[in-house]
Amino acid sequence: MKTKTIKQKVIIPASPKEVYDAYVEPKILSKITGSKATGKAVVGGKYTAYGDSILGKYIELEDGKRVVQDWTNNDYGFTSSRLELCFSKVPKGTELVMVLSDVPEEQADEVLEGWIEYFWDPYKKYFSDKSKT
Fold first, then answer.
1. Contact, 2 vs 107, CB < 8 A?
2. Which of 39, 66, 102, 129 is the least crowded, having the fewest Cβ atoms under 10 Å away?
3. Backbone phi and psi for residue 4, each to the nearest 5 degrees, phi listed first
């Protein structure tokens, strides 16, 4: 099976630490996505998101800066991709760079769209709404 590495950049209107915490803290992630998330953000710790649709374990963590995970999405039927998220401060908040490797080539476009619909758009809305209160 041919695989592909996909990359996205998104600006989230919050600090890198806030965006990082929103990704690794299950209670915040659940609030953002409206779906169950579990886990403990420690190297070797396991996590789930969107019920059990997404699961894996933490490989590397740099508080407020970087997350590396073994990432599986059961909805797409492929396993053990490597996900890296990097969080950098920019004038409008945080530039989040996502790199997901070992994605089956025929599913790459759908996976890219899924990250936008199920993660980045809800993150932008959450932090935009939060800044208004």
1. no
2. 129
3. -140, 155
User: Hey, how many other C-beta atoms are within 10 angstroms of the C-beta on 52?
Assistant: 12
> Which residues fall within 8 angstroms of residue 56, CB to CB, at 6 or more apart?
46, 47, 69, 70, 71, 72, 83
Rounded Cα gap, residues 57 and 68, in angstroms: 9
Kindly give the confidence (pLDDT) of every residue in the chain, 133 residues in length, as a single tens digit, with 9 standing for 90 and above: 799 999 999 999 999 999 999 999 999 999 999 999 999 999 999 999 998 889 999 999 999 999 999 998 887 776 689 999 999 999 999 999 999 999 988 888 998 999 999 999 999 999 998 766 5
Instruction: Report the alpha-carbon distance of residue 45 to residue 1 in Å, rounded.
Output: 29
Q: Tell me the CATH number of domain 3-132, given options 3.90.1150.10, 3.40.50.880, 3.30.530.20, 3.55.40.20.
A: 3.30.530.20
**Residue ranges in the chain assigned as alpha helix (H):** 16-24, 26-33, 108-115, 121-132
Residue 17 is predicted with a pLDDT of: 98
